[in-house]
Design a protein that fits this description.
This protein is of the alpha/beta class and about 350 residues long. The chain is built from 17 helices and 13 strands. Helix 10 packs across helix 13.
Length: about 350
């Protein structure tokens, strides 16, 4: 199988989804990756360890068409792939015709968001390209209902033309463990702390870190023993200034990119996720798999409220109310949610088998 994704960076959530699936695929299915954008830290070694190959191509565009870069790639791999899985619907227009020309019979476009672009100038372009792309595909995949309706249409979704591929996670890996929680809290020096947590990068600013810090400052007024751990976030000038102005800077840990998120989720007492927009956030799914209470914005689809301990609040509500709800939810007894997550279709081992069945149909 050949997958296209803009970049293979370590902070790319879509890349994490691809690897989650690849890790749980039958042995006879390999994932090769094509991408175009360089990042400082990548998942290349992770892909290659699983047996996949990684190729960099020119950014799919009219320019790449005229330079024949994409044509050269598919010509060199003629009849090698039966399935191209595109993780950026707007790029389908530049990839699908050439892929089919050289023997790729099945094209899947997979939407992972409820926005066309972070950049205003690209919104109209990507919207038009996504409409054209629907006529070039064999399968239309979506991370969830809202993303599917946004990129395709409500009619397509209701008529069953869109297949939801859950952003499933390894529920066993994230399963709540009191022993791991106690061990890691001691290791990080927070055994006696009330730990507020978040997982996500600072840029682009969709995760709404300034609001997280404002909520945390209100939590500190209720519980002076609270600390905030921001996994995936490097210290930022703007955020540091906000934290200093609210007198909570010394209680915030900017933790940068981590490979132990499953352990950190055991450490947290509550998970804040006030994003401006998301497709279907893996981080919120992982948090629930770890049995954490989760408070997210109502900009996020209600599909991600999997457990009874996950709620959505409006971003128009005050940080004070968010803080109050965070404290209330964290007072509930933390339970093992493995059976709940598995029963509702969020265990990657089951979801990967379903996707493998689609791949093998071709």
């Amino acid at each position: 199988m050949l997958h296209f994704i803009p970049d293979i960076g370590i902070s790319n959530g879509i890349m994490s989804v691809i690897l989650n699936y690849y890790n749980n695929m039958p042995e006879d299915i390999d994932f090769d990756i094509i991408y175009f954008k360089d990042t400082e830290r990548t998942r290349k070694s992770d892909i290659e360890k699983l047996g996949g190959r990684v190729y960099k191509i020119e950014r799919p565009s009219l320019r790449a068409f005229f330079t024949r870069d994409i044509d050269k790639f598919f010509k060199n791999h003629k009849d090698e792939y039966s399935f191209l899985h595109i993780h950026h619907p707007a790029m389908t227009v530049f990839l699908a015709p050439t892929a089919k020309k050289y023997g790729v019979k099945n094209i899947a476009i997979h939407c992972h968001s409820t926005w066309f672009s972070f950049k205003k100038r690209n919104i109209i372009i990507n919207r038009i390209l996504s409409i054209i792309a629907k006529n070039m595909t064999t399968y239309m995949f979506a991370c969830g209902r809202d993303a599917g309706i946004f990129w395709y249409s409500e009619k397509d979704f209701k008529n069953g033309k869109v297949t939801v591929i859950n952003n499933a996670v390894d529920c066993e890996k994230f399963r709540f463990s009191q022993n791991i929680r106690d061990e890691y809290r001691e290791k990080l020096g927070v055994s006696d702390k009330f730990v507020v947590g978040h997982v996500g990068r600072v840029k682009p600013p969709q995760k709404n870190h300034p609001f997280i810090i404002k909520i945390f400052s209100e939590i500190k007024k209720i519980n002076s023993n609270a600390v905030l751990m921001l996994a995936g976030a490097d210290e930022d000038y703007e955020l540091s200034n906000i934290a200093k102005s609210l007198n909570v800077y010394d209680d915030i840990k900017f933790m940068g990119q981590r490979k132990d998120v499953d352990k950190l989720l055991q450490v947290f007492d509550v998970f804040l996720f006030p994003s401006f927009y998301e497709g279907l956030p893996v981080a919120a799914v992982e948090a629930q798999a770890a049995g954490l209470p989760v408070i997210m914005s109502d900009c996020i689809t209600d599909e991600v409220c999997i457990t009874d301990n996950a709620i959505r609040l409006s971003l128009d509500e005050s940080p004070k109310l968010w803080a109050k709800k965070a404290i209330e939810l964290s007072n509930k007894f933390r339970i093992d949610t493995f059976d709940i997550m598995k029963c509702k279709g969020w265990n990657i081992k089951d979801s990967a088998q379903n996707l493998a069945h689609i791949y093998k149909e071709v």
